[in-house]
From TrEMBL:
Lineage: superkingdom: Eukaryota
Name under which the protein is recorded: 3950_t:CDS:1
UniProt keyword annotations, A-Z: Membrane, Transmembrane, Transmembrane helix
Segments passing through the bilayer: 15-33
Length: 49
């Protein structure tokens, strides 16, 4: 009984880790896209000047 409980807990943890990992990937991608957009805007401003 205890063993089964431990297995279910570890499975829950694995699911949580997968969810957190996917969220982190999305956040990093958004940050990278935002930084790219910022650099593009900076370049445009420099070109306008």
């Amino acid at each position: 009984y205890e063993y089964e409980r431990v297995v279910s807990v570890t499975e829950d943890i694995e699911v949580l880790v997968a969810i957190v990992r996917s969220i982190m990937i999305v956040v990093v991608a958004m940050i990278m896209i935002e930084e790219e957009n910022m650099t593009m805007i900076d370049m445009n401003v420099v070109e306008v000047k």
